[in-house]
Design brief:
The protein has helices at 6-13, 23-33, 44-56. It has 70 residues and is mainly α. The protein has one domain (6-56): Conserved Hypothetical Protein Ylqf, Chain: A, domain 2 (Orthogonal Bundle). The model has no long low-confidence stretch (mean pLDDT 88).
Amino acid sequence: MYELYPEELLNRYGIGELDEDFIEAYDLIAQRRGAITKGGVADYDRVSNIVIQDLRNGKLGCVTFDRLED
């Protein structure tokens, strides 16, 4: 997503830059979407489900992961 649709991540989740460790992005999404456990830790399963649902519902725009090769 970050390589192909960075503007969608910025618009939906406020993520402008990512390094190779995407845990920071998950932590940010968890904070913004309320996916925090009672212990104050990000619930990564819930964050994954949020992102998948956003993809399915078109909230991340028109996204395709298929790429044609020459």
